[in-house]
From TrEMBL:
Transferase among keywords: yes
Protein name: histidine kinase
Catalytic activity: ATP + protein L-histidine = ADP + protein N-phospho-L-histidine
Family: In the N-terminal section; belongs to the phytochrome family.
Organism: Belnapia rosea
Keyword Transmembrane in annotation: no
Annotated signal sequence range: none
């Protein structure tokens, strides 16, 4: 069920849908046949009513016999062997099966959750040549192009548009939507690609009841769902013995759907639909790629798999972007946390004085317009807040709720009677308890933000109940709603900042060990963020790339002699692209681990590092005239291993980007200023346009084409992280075609940086 295909079924929409056994419908769609086998000998136990087209006898006579005796066509042995080695993760294509009648099918096998081995035969459709294009050779360029485009996308909306366009190119559907679930399971169409044959839904919102919990669970188990023709007549599945349990068709591509669902599609004017799940790293739904067509349409299994891969790539990019945005936000808030805790430590026993010495810091920590610190000693307000008596009433209400760590809402009036009276000031509330002995809280407030939400139909009337049957929604006209009494939502980074502040406050008040608690909490949080980020990248990106390389090598070994020269070149290109992507992942993991490694500063002369790096770069200078100008260096207090990485990246870039210069001139120097040393690495190479200087230190940011200069675009990001961890800063100057200069600073020994020293 897609958000736009599935209607709520009753006045309480989820009540009917949640109980509907959609994974055991007892029938399939008619554009194929289904057989179910049991045991190691693959004895036939179930068959769709029309399966005689692929059997050697009538369906009834085939029951109880092994697969080798019931299939009529070729290659039977390959089908049997394929079913014996099915993966546990889902369906697998077993090749083409030519029935005795001459009809050709795509054979697909999987293991059902009920213990049966299922074999599906999807009839090949040749109307528009989509079947002929559904091969590895034909699909790979589109998938690779999608991967490249997704890598360049700068926002969730651009990522979604790119994914939608890629899926539409692969499948030929009239309209492809990217649908994102909100926290309450409402859904919003964030991207759309269409040829104009169907109405646009971009920006529309749909109620959570459109996709009930049971349907969402099925989407998490099986990421693909195709309905080729909404006017189809379901084909029943026949059991060997009457009364046998229905088959679990969770992973079946031919699985039939509810008649109400089909009526909904007809009301919508979309005879064909396909959905592909967008899953987070932990398997939970982020959203869906929802496809629709103005006429019946089949999509081959290989093309559906290609769309699934695009959805996975989209999900990984979204996860990486969300993790990076979260990490950047947390980094920005860390300075505020540190200042607040330092002031608290400087004013022992007076929590409110320490937190509100500079009120703007407490407000900026969570992006609030007002804040209150309520303790046993009194109530202190800052910014735009309700009156003190209302603040105390809120605190008493929170105490009754026994809030453990963090309470948050962007609609306080829905929870607290009377809160609508000050919604213009405090529609949003973020609160943390700071004492286990007294009702003490730090509270942040946000004002009401009036906004308009456009729904795909009136969400107050999601269904039309009838005494004798359930009806799907019939109208899809946009319906605008003005939303009041709600603030902007609190971000995960802001909530985490409040939680961390609360933990530190409790530590100061109850244990008197603020510094130790702060450092411990900080290390645990950084490790958690890096572990989650590393897991997301390694789990969701590295495995698919290994599979691509592995299967490409298997294809080369098993089919190499039969591949044309062009085919062999394609396979080699696949392998090379996947290996390159793997290197990108490794570089990203190295970047994430950079913040986890503890600094080990010592006093040393960096000149030795520069000479060592210069010597290591000699192979890259072979056959070139490189003129090195290395000035004197002061003794510094830093981590020599990390500082070597700084010089390695900067000098390697200088050697790389001076390629073609004769002579290439590379200068390394240092200037001593008050409180810091300023190092510089200058070259006369390709340079860059200063208009793009802000991109230099971003992850995977490149100012030159990969064809001109090799690299993965993460070295300077590593350099920036190392320099900043030492308490320094880094910047660059350049002119296109005239060279570049990179400057970075290190604190002098008598003025150490905040983290390292």
């Amino acid at each position: 069920m897609t958000p736009l295909d599935r209607a709520p079924l009753a006045a309480d929409p989820t009540a009917g849908c949640d109980r509907e056994p959609i994974h055991v419908p007892g029938s399939i769609q008619p554009h194929g046949h289904l057989l179910a086998f049991a045991g190691d000998h693959l004895v036939l136990t179930h068959a769709s009513a029309g399966a005689g087209a692929v059997l050697s006898t009538e369906v009834a006579a085939a029951f109880g016999r092994p697969i080798g005796q019931v299939l009529a066509g070729a290659p039977v042995e390959a089908m049997r062997d394929g079913l014996h080695c099915l993966p546990e993760t889902g369906p697998m294509q077993l090749g083409r099966f030519r029935a005795a009648s001459g009809t050709t099918f795509q054979a697909i096998g999987h293991r059902s959750p009920c213990g049966h081995t299922l074999l599906e035969f999807e009839a090949e459709a040749e109307k528009d040549g989509l079947e002929a294009r559904a091969t590895l050779e034909a699909l790979y360029p589109g998938v690779r192009d999608a991967f490249a485009r997704l890598g360049r996308a700068t926002s969730i909306e651009v990522l979604g548009s790119t994914a939608a366009a890629a899926v539409r190119r692969i499948t030929g559907f009239d309209r492809v939507l990217v649908y994102r679930f909100e926290e309450n399971w409402d859904g919003t169409v964030v991207a759309e690609d269409s040829n104009g044959r169907l109405p646009a839904y971009l920006g529309l919102r749909f109620p959570a009841s459109d996709i009930p919990a049971q349907a969402r669970r099925l989407y998490e188990a099986n990421p693909q769902r195709l309905i080729a023709d909404a006017d189809y007549a379901p084909v029943p599945i026949l059991p060997a013995r009457p009364g046998d349990a229905s088959l679990d068709l969770t992973f079946a591509g031919l699985r039939s759907v509810s008649p109400v669902h089909l009526e909904y599609m007809r009301n919508m004017g979309t005879p064909a639909s396909m959905s592909v799940s967008i899953l987070r790293a932990d398997g939970r739904l982020w959203g869906l790629v929802s496809c629709h067509h103005a006429a019946p349409r089949r999509v081959p299994f290989a093309a559906r798999n290609a769309c699934d891969l695009v959805a996975q790539m989209f999900a990984v990019r979204v996860a990486a972007r969300e993790e990076m945005a979260y990490a950047e936000a947390r980094t920005q808030l860390k300075g505020l946390e540190g200042r607040l805790l330092a002031r608290m430590a400087a004013v022992p026993g007076r929590l409110e004085d320490g937190l509100l010495t500079v009120p703007a810091d407490l407000l900026d920590l969570t992006g609030a317009a007002g804040a209150a610190v309520l303790t046993e000693g009194g109530c202190v307000l800052a910014g735009a807040t309700p009156a003190e008596d209302e603040v105390r009433r809120i605190a008493s209400w929170l105490a009754e709720r026994r809030t453990e760590e963090v309470f948050q809402t962007n609609s306080l009036s829905e929870l607290l009677p009377g809160a609508e009276g000050f919604a213009d000031i405090a529609s949003g509330l973020l609160a943390v308890p700071v004492s286990r002995l007294h009702p003490s809280f730090v509270l942040w407030f946000r004002p009401e933000v009036v906004r308009t939400v456009t729904w795909g139909g009136d969400p107050r009337k999601p269904a039309e109940p009838s005494p004798d049957r359930l009806h799907p929604r019939r109208s899809f006209a946009a319906w605008a709603e003005t939303v009041r009494l709600r603030s902007a939502p609190w971000s995960a980074a802001e909530v985490e900042a409040a939680r961390d502040l609360r933990n530190a406050i409790v530590s100061v008040v109850l244990r008197g060990a603020e510094e130790r608690a702060e450092l411990t909490d900080r290390l645990e949080r950084v490790n958690k963020e890096l572990a989650a980020f590393s897991y997301s990248v390694s789990h969701d990106l590295r495995a698919p790339f290994r599979h691509i390389v592995g299967f490409a090598e298997l294809l080369r070994e098993s089919e190499g002699s039969r591949l044309s020269e062009r085919g062999q070149r394609y396979v080699a290109t696949i392998t090379e692209a996947a290996e390159t992507a793997g290197r990108l992942v490794d570089a990203l993991l190295n970047f994430s681990q950079m913040g986890r490694t503890a600094l080990a500063p010592v006093e040393f002369d960096p000149m030795a590092l520069v000479i060592e790096v210069r010597r290591a770069l000699q192979p890259e200078q072979a056959g070139r005239h490189v003129e090195w100008r290395i000035g004197p260096m002061p003794v510094v207090w830093a981590d020599p291993i990390m500082l070597r990485q700084v010089f390695q990246n900067l000098l390697s870039n200088a050697v790389k980007y001076t390629r073609g210069r004769d002579p290439a001139v590379i200068e390394v120097g240092c200037e001593a200023l008050d409180g810091e040393f300023v190092f510089s690495v200058r070259d006369n190479g390709a340079g860059f346009d200063m208009a793009y200087a802000h991109k230099l230190f971003g992850v995977f940011q490149r100012l030159h084409r990969a064809e001109e200069f090799e690299g993965v675009g993460i070295g300077l990001a590593n350099v920036q992280r190392i320099v900043e961890r030492h308490g320094g800063r880094i910047w660059a100057e350049g002119r296109l075609g005239e060279g570049a200069t990179f400057h970075f600073t290190l604190p002098r020994h008598d003025a150490p940086g905040p983290e390292a020293f």
